[in-house]
Amino acid sequence: MIPPSKSLQDILLAHENEKIIIVGLPGSGKTTLAKRISVQTSREQYDNDEFLEWCTKSSVHEIIKKQGMEEFRRLETEILRWCLAQGEDSVISTGSGIVESEDSRKLICESGAIVIWLQTDLEVIKTRLASHPAWQLDQEAITAKLTERAEKRNPLYQGMATYRLENWV
After folding, report:
1. Which among 43, 47, 63, 93 could bridge 34 via Cys, Cβ 3.0 to 4.6 Å?
2. Rounded to the nearest 5 degrees, what angle is found at the Cα of 32, between the Cα atoms of 168 and 41?
């Protein structure tokens, strides 16, 4: 298991001019952390999901509904490839399920980037997602969905992470 990192500041100081990729469950704080790193370090910030939605003119939910999960994962991987090509001094926040694509995992691992895994308590995530339109479910359903995703994805996040930040923000 990757030990929790001392602090975000320690990570940033140790990797001043390196690309950073942030992974974690939905609601873990990936986009918020990427924006903070961008402001603190003057890195370019890319949000994989936001850029995918901008390019396709559709929400993630609409893409999955109309084109299916396989096509969504393909598009997500292509957007990741583009983000990774944008220069060394950048920070990329990924969609939470990007690790489910073997192609995306390979791109991340071969990129040479520093990978930060935001490991956040599921109760904290549930609170954060309570007002998100895609998560308008009863609390029991949210818990079940998050637990299932955590069980499936946490080993994948761990396998690619350089650092782990627990309950960040």
Report:
1. 93
2. 95
Q: Does domain 13-166 have CATH number 3.40.50.300?
A: yes
With beta carbons less than 8 A apart as the criterion, state whether 96 and 124 touch.
no
How far is the C-alpha of 84 from the C-alpha of 24, rounded, in Å?
A: 18
- Strands of 16-140 (E only): list them: 20-24, 44-47, 90-93, 114-119
pLDDT digits (tens, 9 = 90+) for 13-63: 888 889 999 999 988 999 999 999 999 999 999 999 999 999 999 988 899
Task: State which H helix or E strand residue 163 sits in.
Answer: strand 163-166
Residue type, 23: V
Q: Which two tokens stand for residue 147?
A: 């637990």
Read off the pLDDT of residues 86-137 as tens digits, 9 standing for 90 and up: 878 899 999 999 999 999 999 999 999 999 999 988 888 888 777 665 655 5
Residue 50 burial class via C-beta count within 10 angstroms: exposed 0-12, middle 13-18, buried 19 and up: middle
Domain boundaries, the chain: 13-166
